[in-house]
Amino acid sequence: MTIETISRIGRPVTGLRGTHDGGIRETGAESPLMKTPTATANPRSKITMTRREKIEAMLADDPNDNFLRYSLAMELRSEGANAKSLEIFDALMKETPPFVQAFFMSAQLLVDIDEIEQARTHLRDGIDQARAQGDAHAAAEMSDLLATLGEMGEL
């Protein structure tokens, strides 16, 4: 996460300081990595913004940010908006290159709503994409989930 991303989601960045081992740590009482509020005040309207509203506001500035789109799909899933979440995951799977995490999360959501065959299809496609992108970890996770659905995933 970059400082720009951190400051865009409404959490103050008070400063960064180098550490003795060459790393960076944040200074100040309101370090964004130490405190993750679920809502912050919008200074223009004096109302509280939800996490979803913050993500949507950032997407208005950068609608092609795949991580923000993925984050919105995850937030919608947590709110129970499964159809909209799946719609965003599907769009991410069609990107060039496909957003590999979307295959896994959409498959998990499909399992939750008892769409097992479609989940298997997403997992098989996701495993192929993960391998093509050199993401062995994602391929293994999807293979494990596929195996639990009654079909062996190949590693």
> And the CATH topology of the largest domain?
Serine Threonine Protein Phosphatase 5, Tetratricopeptide repeat
Strand order of the largest sheet: 1-2
What is the assigned CATH homologous superfamily of the largest domain?
Answer: Tetratricopeptide repeat domain
For the biggest sheet, the summary is: 2 strands, antiparallel
What would you note in describing this structure?
This protein is mainly α. The chain contains 7 helices and 4 strands. The strands form 2 sheets. The protein has a two-stranded antiparallel sheet. A two-stranded antiparallel sheet has the order 3-4. A hairpin with a 5-residue loop joins β1 (16-18) and β2. The radius of gyration is 19 Å and the shape is globular. Residues 18-28 have a biased composition (Basic and acidic residues). Residues 1-44 are annotated as: Disordered. It comes from Rubripirellula tenax.
Key descriptive features of the protein:
155 residues, mainly alpha, Serine Threonine Protein Phosphatase 5, Tetratricopeptide repeat, 2 domains, two-stranded antiparallel sheet, disordered N terminus
Chart the SSEs and their pairings.
Elements: H1 3-8, E1 16-18, E2 24-26, E3 40-42, E4 47-49, H2 51-61, H3 66-78, H4 82-93, H5 100-112, H6 116-132, H7 136-148
Antiparallel strand pairs: 1-2, 3-4
Helix pairs in contact: 2-3, 3-4, 4-5, 5-6, 5-7, 6-7
Protein name: Tetratricopeptide repeat protein
Biased composition (Basic and acidic residues): 18-28
Region (Disordered): 1-44
